[in-house]
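Working notes for the structural subgroup meeting. M.R. asked for a predicted model of this chain before we commit to crystallization trials. I am recording the input and output together here so anyone reviewing the notebook later can reproduce the run.

Input as submitted:
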Amino acid sequence: MVIGRWLRAHLTDEWAVALLAAMLSIAFFAWYDAHGLTVAFNDARVREIIARRVLMSRTPGLAQLGTTWLPLPFMLMLPFIWNDTLFRDGLAGSLPSMAAYVIAVLYIYRTARLLTSSRT
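Returned structure, recorded in token form:
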């Protein structure tokens, strides 16, 4: 009863949307991981390898990012890519994408609410 009262007082629409988006993101990652599809697309593994070369290669450094793709996804992977478990499971590349999804959903909700003046 106390938890319900606290949630009603502190859980705004934006927090509810962000929480729902986070749960969906985690659920879909779990589904893809359970089916072995997290890094099924070869491009996903190559992008993780490029990010890993920034930290672990014969000549580590930002020059390893190259010029083919924009560097932002690789830079966002850097805090996770050094961990072998996160690298092998594809989580190092998925975590920044999952966070970006939640942020995008939140801002789409804000934009729709601003344009329509409706909470739904």
